[in-house]
């Protein structure tokens, strides 16, 4: 059982080969792949958290699609003053599939 904890778009995600995750929008290389930096690597009973050894570890993911997250409504209101402000936001996301952990 090999899995890694990677830094993906401002968050940390636990991934293994074949797992699919959504992260903040990233730009893929020419082959449609993204390299994610590892924070922790677990290979059976062996756990690696040393920064020098993790610099040699590569987690490769294939970009499946670019999409947008759910709409978030932001409403500001102040009583008795007539102040109302309505704003919306949709986060730009990328869905990736982890193909290799070396």
UniProtKB/TrEMBL annotation:
Report the protein name in the record. Large ribosomal subunit protein bL21
Query: Subunit comment for this entry?
Result: Part of the 50S ribosomal subunit. Contacts protein L20.
Q: Which domain of life is it from?
A: Bacteria
UniProt feature coiled coil, ranges: none
Q: Which UniProt keywords apply?
A: Ribonucleoprotein, Ribosomal protein, RNA-binding, rRNA-binding
Give one Pfam family: Ribosomal_L21p
Q: Which GO terms describe its molecular function?
A: rRNA binding; structural constituent of ribosome
Q: Tell me, which GO biological process terms does this entry list?
A: translation
User: What are the record's GO terms for cellular component?
Assistant: cytoplasm; ribonucleoprotein complex; ribosome
Its job: This protein binds to 23S rRNA in the presence of protein L20.
């Amino acid at each position: 059982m090999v899995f890694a904890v990677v830094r993906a778009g401002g968050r940390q995600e636990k991934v293994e080969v074949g797992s699919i995750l959504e992260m903040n929008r990233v730009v893929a290389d020419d082959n449609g792949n993204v390299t994610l930096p590892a924070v922790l690597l677990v290979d059976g009973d062996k756990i690696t958290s040393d920064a020098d050894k993790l610099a040699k570890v590569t987690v490769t993911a294939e970009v499946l699609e670019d999409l947008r997250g759910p709409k978030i409504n932001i409403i500001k209101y102040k009583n008795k003053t007539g102040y109302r402000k309505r704003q919306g936001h949709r986060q730009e996301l990328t869905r990736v599939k982890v193909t290799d952990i070396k």
